[in-house]
Specification:
The structure is a single chain. With 57 residues, the chain is mainly alpha-helical. It is built from two helices and no strands.
Length: 57
Amino acid sequence: MTHRIFNASNLYGVIAFLALLAAPAAVEGEMYITAAALVVILAGCAHLSIREGGKRK
């Protein structure tokens, strides 16, 4: 059994996690448009991560 570390689900999950950490920092820096974009990226990547992980192989 071989497991790939860098599959699509893991990559989307990492991007969502980093956006989750960066969004409050953008609000603290008063970069509200950037914070809104990060929240959209977070939601999109989290949705794709769940969808990719739920597929049968």
